[in-house]
Design brief:
CATH topology of the largest domain: Endonuclease III, domain 1
Number of strands: 0
Number of domains: 2
Structural class: mainly alpha
Largest sheet: none
Length: about 210
């Protein structure tokens, strides 16, 4: 089975297993997704979703966050960890959106990447979820599952995994596939204890076959 054949089988199985594929972070506007993704670094989505309503209650807009002192932001987002750096990045990013983009999130990948604190993961997530463009979000679940299944060969660098997946994943499937990897990684293919005996991918997965 080639990698392309394998990924098409994975896409089909996961679609049946998880019909609804969407971002697990709660947001209403594109700028809120940028904030949430930055807060989610080394933090659970559930914790982020507990903190962002408190942040938006005090700072309900791009302009409000842009005008806030980073220390005010940090005081709220501290439970997400890495408070000083996350608050600083959010402050800088919102200032750029306010001053250069009229409080709107830019619509090109290159412009998104140029925003403070925005990496490829965040940019791809916005491109796919907000703008409906082809995107591959290589978070920890995606990287781990792709290596276990055999879609990539012992590659841990997110950018390299993304490049390899673009070679085999149909562009229109990338964004939803990555969301389904998150759901499957949490429910079945759990880190350090994958439940291969109940996994819908067992017969197309290299890790399961090697057990």
């Amino acid at each position: 089975m080639t990698k392309k054949q394998r990924v098409l089988a994975v896409i089909e199985r996961l679609k049946k297993e998880y019909p609804e594929a969407s971002c697990t972070l709660a947001y209403e506007d594109a700028w809120q997704l940028l904030v949430s993704v930055r807060l989610a670094a080394q933090c659970t989505d559930a914790r982020v979703d507990q903190i962002t309503p408190l942040l938006y209650e005090k700072f309900p807009s791009v302009a409000a966050l842009a005008a806030a002192d980073p220390s005010e932001i940090e005081a709220i987002v501290r439970p997400c960890g890495l408070g000083p750096s996350k608050a600083r990045d959010i402050s800088k990013c919102m200032r750029v959106l306010h001053e250069q983009y009229d409080d709107q999130v830019p619509t090109t990948f290159e412009e998104l990447l140029a925003l403070p604190g925005v990496g490829r993961k965040s940019a791809n997530l916005v491109m796919g979820d907000v703008f409906g463009k082809p995107a591959i979000v290589t978070d920890t679940h995606c990287i781990r599952l792709c290596n276990l299944i055999g879609l990539v060969d012992n590659i841990k660098d997110p950018a390299k995994v993304e490049r390899e997946l673009w070679k085999i994943v149909p562009p229109e499937e990338g964004n939803d596939l990555c969301h389904r990897f998150v759901l499957h990684g949490r429910a079945v293919c759990v880190a350090r204890r994958p439940q291969c005996d109940v996994c819908c991918l067992a017969d197309v997965c290299k890790h399961a076959a090697a057990r």
